[in-house]
TrEMBL record:
Belongs to the class-III pyridoxal-phosphate-dependent aminotransferase family. Keywords: Aminotransferase, Pyridoxal phosphate, Transferase. PROSITE patterns: AA_TRANSFER_CLASS_3. SUPFAM superfamilies: PLP-dependent transferases. This is Acetylornithine aminotransferase. CDD domains: OAT_like.
Length: 379
C-alpha cells in the first residue's frame, strides 16, 4: 500500500530535534523557524515536557470522557489563569479544525441561526463547517459548500453591519492574526467595533486563535492586543507542542447540557499531560517576554535586508514580504542554508513561526542566510 499522495515533500527526513534545531538522517542540522506550522511552542523535545509525557504513559494514556479525569480540571484551571480568562469554561478536542467545528456548532445551538460571516484570505481548517468558512475554493468540496457563509474584507465594519442587520447571522469567525492567508490582521478599531456589534445583534464572536494563540503574538491571545473579549476562542497548534490537542474557551453566556458537544480522543490523559507541561513551561520560562524581546530584535535586524518591503504580523507570528514570488528563495533557504520557513497564500511572503524559545542569535543566523540567498538568486 502507498500513501495517498496529497503533500509535496522536500527530500529531508528528520530523525531528531532539540529546541529550535532539527537533525536529519544524514546528520545535517536545520534551524527551525517554522515549528511545523507554528505547532512547536516550547521547543522540540523540551526535557520537562518529555518527562511529563513519559510519566503519564507509564500510568494511563487514554480512557473515555465517561470517567473522571483530574488532568482536564488541572489543564482548565492553569489555562484560565495564564490567559486571564478564568470565568470561561473549556471543552477539549483534538485539532484546530475540530475546535472551529465545535465553535460554529455551539454558536448555532445558542441563537438558532445558520449564516456565518468569515473574512477574505481566512483559513479555519479542512473539515465540514471549518473548510466552508475558509476562503479557498480549491479545498471546499460540494458537500461543504452547502454551508451558508458570507466572506467580507477585513477592516470594513460597515459591510459587517450591513450583513448583521439582516438578522440571520449566527456567528462571525475571525483569526487573531491570519496564518495561511498571509499575516493580515484586523485593526484595534475594527476588532472593538466588531465585538460591540456582535453583542448588539445577538451574534456569537468566534476568535480563531489556533495559530495566533498561546503566547505567539506576545500576549496569550492575539485578540487581547485589542482589549476585547470573544464569546468563543478556538485553540490547538501550540497547545500541545506537537501532541494532538485542541479546545474551545467558552464565555459564561453559554449553558452546557449533556450531549451538546462530544469527542472520542479530546481531553485524553496524554493530551492533558502535554497541555499542562506546555502551560507550566510558558509560565516558568517567561516565554511571552522572550517573544516580545525577539520580536523587537527581529524588526531592527530585518532592516539590514533592503529587499524586504514589509514585515507583517506580530510577536513570533511574522510574514516577511518581498516584491517577487519567494518559492525559490524559500527552497534555497531550506536546502542550501538549512533553515525552515513557511509559505502562505501570498506567494511573496516567507512565514516565520519559530518555537517561542528562539534566541536572538538564531535571528542573526537567519538574516545572514537571507542576505546570502538573495544575493545568490539575483546573481
Amino acid at each position: 500500500m502507498n500513501l495517498f499522495d496529497v503533500y509535496p515533500l522536500y527530500n529531508i527526513t528528520p530523525v531528531k530535534a532539540l529546541d529550535c534545531t532539527i537533525t536529519d538522517e544524514k546528520g545535517v542540522e536545520y534551524l527551525d523557524l517554522y515549528g511545523g506550522h507554528g505547532v512547536i511552542s516550547i521547543g522540540h523535545t523540551q526535557p520537562d515536557y518529555v518527562a511529563k509525557l513519559k510519566n503519564q504513559l507509564d500510568n494511563i494514556g487514554f480512557y473515555s470522557n465517561a470517567i473522571q479525569n483530574p488532568l482536564q480540571v488541572e489543564l482548565a484551571e492553569k489555562l484560565g489563569k495564564l490567559s486571564g480568562l478564568e470565568e470561561y469554561t473549556l471543552f477539549l478536542c483534538s485539532s484546530g479544525a475540530e475546535a472551529n467545528e465545535n465553535a460554529l456548532k455551539l454558536a448555532s445551538f445558542h441563537n438558532n441561526k445558520t449564516r456565518v460571516i468569515a473574512f477574505d484570505n481566512s483559513f479555519h481548517g479542512r473539515t465540514s463547517a471549518a473548510v466552508a468558512v475558509t476562503d479557498n475554493k480549491k479545498i471546499v468540496a460540494p458537500i461543504n459548500a452547502q454551508q451558508i457563509v458570507t466572506f467580507l474584507p477585513l477592516n470594513n465594519i460597515e459591510l459587517v453591519e450591513k450583513e448583521l442587520k439582516k438578522g440571520d447571522i449566527s456567528s462571525v469567525i475571525i483569526e487573531g492574526i491570519q496564518g495561511v492567508g498571509g499575516l493580515d490582521q484586523g485593526t484595534t478599531e475594527f476588532f472593538q467595533a466588531l465585538a460591540k456589534m456582535c453583542e448588539a445583534y445577538d451574534v456569537v464572536l468566534i476568535l480563531d486563535e489556533v495559530q495566533s494563540g498561546y503566547g505567539r503574538s506576545g500576549k496569550f491571545f492575539a485578540h487581547q492586543h485589542h482589549n476585547i473579549k470573544a464569546d468563543i476562542i478556538c485553540l490547538a497548534k501550540g497547545m500541545g507542542n506537537g501532541f494532538p490537542i485542541g479546545g474551545i474557551l467558552i464565555s459564561p453566556k453559554f449553558t452546557a447540557s449533556y450531549g451538546l458537544l462530544g469527542t472520542t480522543f479530546g481531553g485524553n490523559h496524554l493530551a492533558c499531560a502535554a497541555g499542562i507541561a506546555v502551560l507550566d513551561i510558558i509560565e516558568s520560562q517567561k516565554l511571552m517576554d522572550n517573544v516580545n524581546d525577539v520580536y523587537a530584535y527581529f524588526l531592527e535586524a530585518i532592516k539590514q535586508v533592503p529587499e524586504v518591503i514589509k514585515v507583517k504580523g506580530r510577536g513570533l507570528m511574522l510574514g516577511v514580504e518581498f516584491d517577487f514570488d519567494v518559492s525559490n528563495l524559500r527552497k534555497k533557504m531550506i536546502m542550501d542554508k538549512h533553515i525552515f520557513t513557511g509559505n502562505a497564500n501570498n506567494k511573496n511572503l516567507l512565514r516565520i513561526l519559530p518555537p517561542l524559545t528562539i534566541k536572538k542569535e538564531a535571528i542573526d543566523t537567519f538574516i545572514i542566510a537571507l542576505k546570502e540567498s538573495l544575493k545568490e538568486i539575483q546573481s
